[in-house]
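Researcher: Quick sanity check before group meeting.
Model: Go ahead. Protein one:
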Amino acid sequence: MTIIAIAIFVITLVLVIWQPRGLGIGWSALGGAGLALITTVVSLGDIPTVWDIVGNATFAFVGIVLISLILDESGLFEWAALHVTRWGCGNGRLLFVMVILLGAVISALFANDGAALILTPIVIQILIALKFSARASLGFVLACGFVADAGSLPLVISNLVNIVSADYFGIDFARYAIVMVPVGIVTVAASLGVLYLAFRRSIPRRYDPAAAPDPRSAIHDPLTFTAGFWVLGVLLIGYFVADPLHIPLSVITAVGALALILIAARRPAFLFTRATPLGSNGDATVRAVSEDSSATVGLRRISVRRVVREAPWQIVLFSIGMYLVVYGLRNQGLTDRLAGVFAGIGQNGVLVTALGVGVIVAVLASIMNNLPTVLIAALAIGAAGATGLTHEAMIYANVIGSDLGPKITPIGSLATLLWLHVLDRRGIHIGWGRYFRTGILLTVPVLLISLSALAGWLLIIG
């Protein structure tokens, strides 16, 4: 039965990555779950158990992505990127740093998938406008992809991996932030240093910031754009008060997503006033803008129906399907073997525990994808019997390894595969061999620094 469980897991993982005939990650994972049920690797009684582990995390993630897509349609991320272009003051290396920091902020607030898949195309458009060479652009593009995961440590909502782990171990939003915000800052700083050393020679020293469009031109729906800042502020407060009030995180993100959807779907679509500068004397006229006149000022209506349709609903099917398959590995005792390894590592202090567990998880995530890895490792940590700081070090090392490890290989995360596909469509081809070499070079030092920072910080805060 153990061999059957492993075979089903491997087959499911291949189907999820390959997605034959456009099957999608959800239906591929459900197919694996069906095999697991038919072969009795899992039982029907395991379904509610697995859903209790991943249900809240899955819908919270969907809510965050919906918020990201609505704000992207309003022009928020392009507006921010264009401002960063101006803040670079014509210094290419400063611009490189600013783009990385922007990616880290977006990843922390809107999850890693949003940072990679939304920011990267915007940065490519800006680099084209600035007339950067293909070699220089590649450095910026790879930096965007890498920092999307490196910047996804600080908050529970920054990565689906974080949400699954926090839910499984009952970690509230505040405690997670206390531990991981400082570690996340160290991780971003280390990433910045590694990325700069790797690509500094290809970054042009100077560029013309005036070649990029005015940031105001990126705003397509000013009301939704402005509302986005208020919604984000309310969401951050909601995240902190949710646990004491026993409100699921998915409810908080759903309320934020619904608020933005209702604002974006209003009729008429553009009911606001806008000041438009005229001439060179600084005078301005206030123009009332409605749906009928939106074309004259470069505005566009947000297609809420399309945004909702493009939300990652398949992740719901994927979560229940893939994690049922993973639970089958647990039923056959495979996670207990990993628990034994973790228990042995945990006898050697917090630093060795963080490094040992984190590196093992990172390797597993790079080989078999980070989403199944985080649950496999969580199940093993739960069975390892560790307590106190050692137990906490294992939990957060699992998060770090599952967040950073996937950058070693193209198959480490589904977002990376989709990101590479997006780049390919835009004429930027990164072969798997080149990606693997670059991934190891960038990931290993950052991973070790992050895990060491975690151990040190846990010893400080106790």
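Researcher: Fine. The other one?
Model: Protein two, sequence then structure:
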Amino acid sequence: MIAGLNRQLAGWAAFYKFTDFTAHVFGRIDLVVFLKMAHWLGHRYRSRIKPLMRKWYRTPEPGKAKTWLVFGRNERGGPHGKALYRLVSSPKAQFRWRNPEDNPYIFRKEARSTVTSHYQDVAMAMGQA
């Protein structure tokens, strides 16, 4: 369950890292994901949330934010832990518009011949004459 959620959360973080107010939005999404995970764990293990938090809500590494750290067994039967991804700790970025040199959907080998317009320069020169 946590591995699937982590993939979706990482995808959302990569897609929405260029939006405004990412910390606010990511914080609200983290709260909803935390509560849904708590209710799911409570239902799965037939327990209340408070004992589950004592057992599985902790920091995965020093310097990281607290999150659900659930332990289980891997394919070989050994202990394996997974931490729920936190959107708040994901990187944010400023959007920079960049025009591509060529169309990424058209594969061409030959060089393109593009026409550059100097209409503004010509119109200003003619207007001052």
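Researcher: One line on it for the slide.
Model: The chain has four helices and three strands.
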